[in-house]
Amino acid sequence: MAKPISTSPAPSPPLILALETSGSCGSVALVDGRGCRAEYSLQSSRTHSRRLLEAVEHLMMASDTAWQDLDALAVGLGPGSFTGLRIGLSSVKGLALATGKPLIGVSSLDGLAAQAVALPACSLPVCALIDARKQEVFAAFYRPTDKESDHNQAGGEEQIGPLTRTSPYLALPPAELVTLIRQPTLLLGSGAELYRKLLAEKLAQQALFAPPQSCFARATAIGWLAQEQWRRGNLVDPGRVTPIYVRSADAKPQE
Fold first, then answer.
1. Per-residue confidence in pLDDT tens, the chain, 255 aa
2. Domain 110-214, what architecture?
3. Domains in the chain: boundaries
């Protein structure tokens, strides 16, 4: 991922076009300060390259939004499908260069975790899981942010909207992941769905599963987190932005 560059954000909440292509369900959305203005998601066996820009055009026309109305573009950087991420990044780079709009990169795991905020179990720790193929998952752990006591976060933690990420991004087998979970945890994402039986057997009462409709990465969540990045002035150079690649790393258990 490229090093962020800074800019002075507009005083009003920005209108952001967000793309998410880390999985088989491609998603595009228009997000402003009040929430989701429009979203289009499609699960298909066709590659994102055949339908992504068509979806963007349809969304812009259906919402009566002109390119000059946009303040920025946002994209899910993964981890996830290499092909999907390559298509998403190449598409959004082209749009950024053609329109001159600034670009914001957001982790797909962070976006997925942010979708847990609206769920009844949102007070629990969260584990976002994306199918990494080869019998592995991409994963990260989060906890609800305590605004009163989180002024000085522990080393390695990062606030992601209303959540705080408590682990690095991981790539590991599900059987290894369960050894890191020692308290009731909300699991969501394609990895949670794919390995639900194993996770339920190993974790028993410690595993709570998000409903299926919350388990695919949505562009709305990418746009939502991009709003905060915009306010901080954290933009990326379209010519240098790269996907988040995760390799097996030393994993630390939850505290």
1. 454 444 444 457 899 999 999 988 889 999 998 889 999 988 765 656 668 888 999 999 999 999 999 999 999 999 998 888 999 999 999 999 999 999 999 999 999 999 998 777 678 999 999 999 999 999 999 999 876 555 555 667 999 888 999 999 999 999 999 999 999 999 999 999 999 999 999 999 999 999 988 888 899 999 999 999 999 999 999 989 999 988 544 444 454
2. 2-Layer Sandwich (3.30)
3. 16-108+216-232, 110-214
Single-letter code of the amino acid located at 202 = K
Rounded Cα distance, 61 and 56, in Å: 9
DSSP label of 120: T
Axis crossing angle, helix 82-99 with helix 52-62, rounded to the nearest 10: 50
What homologous superfamily is domain 16-108+216-232 in, according to CATH? ATPase, nucleotide binding domain (3.30.420.40)
